[in-house]
Amino acid sequence: MLATRNISRLSNLVKFSRRNYGLPASAIGVGSDPRKDKTVQLTPLRGVNIIHDPLLSKGTAFSIAERERLSIRGLVPPRCQEMDKQLLRIKRNLDALETPLAKFVFLSALQDRNEILFYKLLINYLDELSGIIYTPTVGEACLMSHSIYRRSRGMYFSSQDRGAMSAMVHNWPHDEVDVIVVTDGSRVLGLGDLGANGMQIPIGKLSLYVAAGGIRPRSVLPVVLDVGTNNESLLNDPLYLGMGHPRLDGEDYYTFVDEWVTAVHSRWPNALIQFEDFKYPHAYNLLNKYREKITCFNDDIQSTSAITLAGILASLKARNLSPTDLNQERIICVGAGSAGVGVCEGIVDAMVAQGKVKSREEAYSRIWMLDQDGLLGNPALSTVDSTAAFDERHQNFDERQRCYIKSDLSDRLSLEDLIEKVKPTVLLGLTGVPGVFSEKAIRTMAKYQEKPIVFPLSNPDTRAECTAEQAFKWTEGRAIFASGSPFADVTLPNGKVCKTNQCNNSYSFPGLGLGITVSRARTVTPNMFLETANTIADLASPAQLKEGVLFPGVSHLREVALAVGTRVCEVAYEENVATAVLQPGEILSDVVQNSMFVPEYIPLVHSPNAH
Ligand SMILES: O=C([O-])CC(=O)C(=O)O
Ligand SMILES: [Mg+2]
Predict the structure, then answer these.
(1) Shortest-distance atom of ligand 1 to CA 187
(2) CA 3, CA 553: separation in Å to the nearest integer?
(3) Per the annotation, does 112 bind a ligand?
């Protein structure tokens, strides 16, 4: 597991935000949220209905007085146990399990019984457990989801629900929903089309929204849009739980998604919608359709872009270069799907914002993009036979991909040949194809760079473009390495310890969601992502950067989310998209911090009229 890392600079960072925006008082001031200083929780439920409600249950921790008030006397073992004893039991049971998937199933069951305890455990052991509830194990859980299914969580909207969605949203029991993560399961991590099995991804993302971003467990909603699947093995599996037909596409698909967006937006107009793991080009088309109209973003396009940019900016510092010299980099991106194009667009935005390129075109010229066939280059220079398939390849590029086509280089040039020609400083992998960063590619890069930046970003770890061990071995330990899923630090035969980084959007989306929720931002703006990147790029200390550590470790995700959330909130006010009104004298960083959910038991009181 990754070592705990010093984050002393975080507190400095948050201080910058101790700024009073001096906005007029209002009844809906974010700091005056009555939920925050609640000392008791009212519930209309009693008896077994409390014990079986994961948002209310305390397992064995109900006090004697509570047991009396709530009519659960005798329904739980007699000894009233504090949370620390519960944690001890849970952790022992968890440690006794042998496989990551067994741990995943165990943790899901805990989440389904007692959410406070689940989040307490998760926060206490974030470094260890994020790899179970999130990547890489969540990938395995998606592959196996139909076999390990126990209990439903979240909502499914399927092709048979067309025409019924505006009624269905009222089946969800909670009026307050702050964050919705939605997938159509069409490109689950780097694992491809997993249909309704993709539900584990929104669930895992929202668990991090709560644990790291401090969003309340009651106000998150995981959603699958089940428009069918083209995955033959799932279609033929009698245990599969999704719709048994090929995916809707074209007009049918967009009409379906539109019905869903309209339904959720009308019930929860303030909720942030995070689009997750949608295939290219649907991912972009949906983002472009809704980004101005509702509060939404695409995680794979925009928050992956923010954390990757943060990694590159921090790596500039690690190489004793200025982070404002991004335009000096030569970047090769292998992968032209939603994440690849999204990451590159974020880099271009940042180069333009830094003001050192004359045009967007100049920024594009610093990035070389490859898809599964090789470089997006000039067909006229290609030495490969021109075939119908070849022509189709170019016709299929859209305007976003075309920006990266290089007219001076042969189309479909291989990664190895391109590296020899371009001598890149940064190599990004967003392909979902393991082994794409070959030994020759990395060794060639290392011939020209003292500290090659190697980021195999595909998830889970089985889809990474190379392993940490390979990257360090092939560069004699000189690489600065960051991967989407965690890899342990590597010790070379000469004893040198090479540090790995996890460059995953789990560093960016919880803070983005926190800032957007607290400010009640109407829309999610490009600057929010740019500032997320700048904020995270500043978190590592000079000593950490020197040893190739770019970010605080995963155990600090909560502090990272606070720093990002505060900055995103500021941007929302600066850009006039915030709709929550601050009370006079309120300090933004305090407001954000105080709004963060902390898992602790609150005394429950029965009240027939509460909801
Ligand atoms: O879920 C993750 O680990 C990162 C991500 O969004 C993806 O790979 O699609
Ligand atoms: Mg994703």
Answers:
(1) 9
(2) 7
(3) no
Mutate to test the pocket of ligand 1, among 299, 430, 483 (most ligand atoms within 8 A of CB): 299
Gap from CA of 420 to ligand 1 centroid (Å): 30
Residue 152 token pair: 């439903």
3-state secondary structure 92-152: HHHHHCCCHHHHHHHHHHHHHHCHHHHHHHHHHCHHHHHHHHCCCHHHHHHHCHHHHCCCC
Q: Is 300 annotated as a binding residue?
A: yes
DSSP 170-223: GGSS-S---EEEEE-SSS-TTS---GGGGGHHHHHHHHHHHHTT---GGGEEEE
Determine whether the annotation assigns residue 276 to a binding site: yes
In the block, which residue shows the tokens 């590296």? 419
Radius of gyration of the chain (CA): 24
Bridge partner residues of 371 (DSSP): 374
Residue 335 identity: G
Query: Which residues lie across from 296 on neighbouring strands?
Result: 273
Residue nearest to atom 8 of ligand 1 (CA): 189
- Determine the CATH number of domain 53-298: 3.40.50.10380
Q: What is the pLDDT of residues 253-262, one digit of tens each?
A: 999 999 999 9
* Substitution candidate for ligand 1 out of 132, 133, 134, 135 with most atoms within 8 A of CB: 135
Quote the strand ranges of 404-496, DSSP E. Answer: 426-429, 453-456, 480-483, 490-491
Number of other CB atoms surrounding residue 440 within 10 Å: 15
**Tokens linked to 276:** 């997750």
List the Cα angle 346/349/352 in 5-degree steps: 150
**Residue-wise pLDDT tens digits, 196-237:** 999 999 999 999 999 999 999 999 999 999 999 999 999 999
Q: How far is the CA of 44 from the centre of ligand 2 (A)?
A: 38
| pTM attached to this predicted model | 0.93
Nearest CA to ligand 1 atom 3: 135
Q: Which atom of ligand 1 is nearest to the CA of 205?
A: 1
Q: Where are the domains of the chain?
A: 53-298, 302-382+394-505
Tell me, in angstroms, the distance from the centre of ligand 2 to residue 46's CA.
Answer: 39
Q: State which amino acid sits at residue 215.
A: I
Interface pTM, i.e. ipTM: 0.98
Does CATH place domain 302-382+394-505 in 3.30.70.141? no
- Check the CA dihedral 517-519-522-525 and report its sign: negative
Find the residues whose C-beta lies inside 6 A of ligand 1: 135, 189, 277, 299-300, 459, 484, 504-505
The answer to whether 573 and 519 have CB atoms below 8 angstroms apart is yes
What DSSP string runs through 345-357? HHHHHHHHHHT-S
Q: Are the beta carbons of 277 and 201 closer than 8 angstroms?
A: yes
Pairing of strands 480-483, 490-491: unpaired
Question: Do the first three CATH levels of 53-298 and 302-382+394-505 match, i.e. the same topology?
Answer: yes
**Digit-coded pLDDT (tens) for 81-129:** 999 999 999 999 999 999 999 999 999 999 999 999 999 999 999 999 9
